[in-house]
Amino acid sequence: MENRPIAHRPPDGGSILTAAGFVLLVNLIGAAPSVVSSPDTPWFRALEKPWFYPPTIAFPVVWTLLFTLLGVAVWLVWRSDADGRRLALGLFVGQLAFNVAWTPAFFALEAPLLALGVIVALWGLVVGTIVAFRRVDTRAAALLVPYLAWVTFAAVLNFELWRLNA
Fold it and tell me: Domain locations in the chain?
């Protein structure tokens, strides 16, 4: 494979609106599970929490920021004509589906161990998505790194919630 720099098109007004649409769509998809399940239940409030459990306000703030980064990242890949674009987009959709599945697995089903399985699969899919995005647009891959860090933290948190309450 030839090593050549990837030419990046500067965004125009229409593509900025498209990027905003991607950001909005990813945020809406990411927020969808909160319609059917929530941590505001007697079951969750009764769980023993680990010492590093963040303040409740951290979750919507962090997820909004991360979903915004994901929206920009997928927009960068979507607008590219690089080889590997379809695979990268497919992996993105797959990891997003697992992300959405985690909330009902944990909160609605009250199944921390099942949710742990979901988040471990999610972690692997995020890593795969970063690798695939890197082949298409290194900026898009870099935008997913904070997401991987948070999913890693969330997996540890999920494990500890399961361990402390098993």
Answer: 65-166
